[in-house]
Amino acid sequence: MVGYPVDNEEYKKRAQEILDVLPSSPLNFICKSKEAELIKYASNCFLFLKVIYANIFYDLARKEGSDWQKIKTGLSADPRIGTSHLNPVHASGTDISTGRGAGGNCFIKDFAALRLYAEELGIDTLSLDFLKIAESKNIDLLKNSDKDLDLIQKIYGDI
């Protein structure tokens, strides 16, 4: 995917020239730069939310004495859900310790950026509240498991 900053034929032509020299990928197309940016944020933030979702169901399973591995196996058998991002306790790749929540540089940073962008655009209150609650839940998971505390500090400061 290659984004162009101005919607005119010259930029589209240049974007196509760049795309033509890149290796083939599952997604080969050109679009506006803002569309490419939203696609990137949507992809990362979808997976961020999937991690939060898995953590909530992990807690539900533990509360009622269910085996999370069996629930995870059942979920991942659904091709619409798949196997990725269903481990509530994992290392995010930024350090050797494991913990809960959507960690790592991209997830934390991109979700914070999405929330700020939504605020700037004046998205409806319920949608903004949803983003804020998901962000707060993730921070809580990360902090309570001592995961990526340095990244939380860099992005949010003292919280």
* Count of extended strands: 4
Strand order of the largest sheet: 1-2
State mean pLDDT (0 to 100 scale). 95
Strand portion: 5-15%
Helix content: 55-70%
Structural class: mainly alpha
- What is the CA-CA span between the terminal residues? 37 Å
CATH architecture identity:
Orthogonal Bundle
CATH topology name, in short, is N-(1-d-carboxylethyl)-l-norvaline Dehydrogenase, domain 2
CATH superfamily: N-(1-d-carboxylethyl)-l-norvaline Dehydrogenase, domain 2
| Unreliable parts | none
Number of helices: 6
Shape category: globular
Total number of domains: 1
How would you describe this structure to a colleague?
- The protein has 159 residues and is mainly alpha-helical.
- It has a single domain (37-156), classed as N-(1-d-carboxylethyl)-l-norvaline Dehydrogenase, domain 2, CATH 1.10.1040.
- Helices cover 62% and strands 6% of the residues.
- The protein is built from 6 helices and 4 strands, in the order βαβααββααα.
- The protein has helices spanning 9-21, 33-64, 68-76, 105-121, 125-144, 149-156, and strands at residues 2-4, 30-32, 89-90, 99-100.
- InterPro entries: 6-PGluconate_DH-like_C_sf, UDP-Glc/GDP-Man_DH_dimer.
- GO terms for molecular function: NAD binding; oxidoreductase activity, acting on the CH-OH group of donors, NAD or NADP as acceptor.
Keywords:
4 strands, two-stranded parallel ribbon, 159 residues, globular, N-(1-d-carboxylethyl)-l-norvaline Dehydrogenase, domain 2, mainly alpha, two-stranded antiparallel sheet, 6 helices, 6% strand
